[in-house]
Amino acid sequence: MAGAAGTTILAFTILTLSSLLLPTNSDQFSRKLNKREMGISTKREKLSHLHFYFHDIVSGRNPTAVIVAEAAATNSSATGFGMVVMIDDPLTTGPNVSSKIVGRAQGLYGSADLTEFGLLMALNFVFLEGKFNGSTLSVLGRNAAMAAVREMPIVGGSGVFRFARGYAQARTHFINMKTGDAIVEYNVYVLHY
């Protein structure tokens, strides 16, 4: 009996030491991938243009944009520097909020400039219609909100937009200076597979 137990302990020790000395896939930090296996080498990259309206509603009973942080009361910046707004804004085919909803803009923006009204935008365009249903595009960049045309980078995406890159152009269609509600026209140009 003692010989069998000794053999078992010896075998367990050898297996344990060999697993510590030999590299395994689970310990691997990175590896090269075959583009064909990922389904991208055989596909030609496409350029798509998306056009929609972003409805940023901060007033009323059902706002789609809510202030979640503000700078201290001692902040005298006219730009609202430090304010952070969380959004779940509808994206529609036309400028009227009752137009067909094709997606949502979900994420946040914050006032990131002491002297001009410049926003840091960190959001996803989540598409709910057509061939892009279930796919997203990610925007991360500066929005000089008072400029006639603003350009922000598309830094990635999911679903149909995996490996996406491109840019979004924004133009203010309407803004209510009393309530802060705004409608922004977006033209998005994106390269994807």
UniProtKB/TrEMBL annotation:
It is found in: Secreted, Extracellular space, Apoplast. Keywords: Apoplast, Secreted, Signal. InterPro entries: Allene_oxi_cyc_Dirigent, Dirigent. It comes from the Eukaryota. Residues 1-26 form the signal peptide. Pfam families: Dirigent. Gene3D superfamilies: Allene oxide cyclase-like. Coiled coil: none annotated. GO terms for cellular component: apoplast. Its main location: secreted. The keyword Secreted applies. GO terms for biological process: phenylpropanoid biosynthetic process. Belongs to the plant dirigent protein family. Dirigent proteins impart stereoselectivity on the phenoxy radical-coupling reaction, yielding optically active lignans from two molecules of coniferyl alcohol in the biosynthesis of lignans, flavonolignans, and alkaloids and thus plays a central role in plant secondary metabolism. Homodimer. This is Dirigent protein.
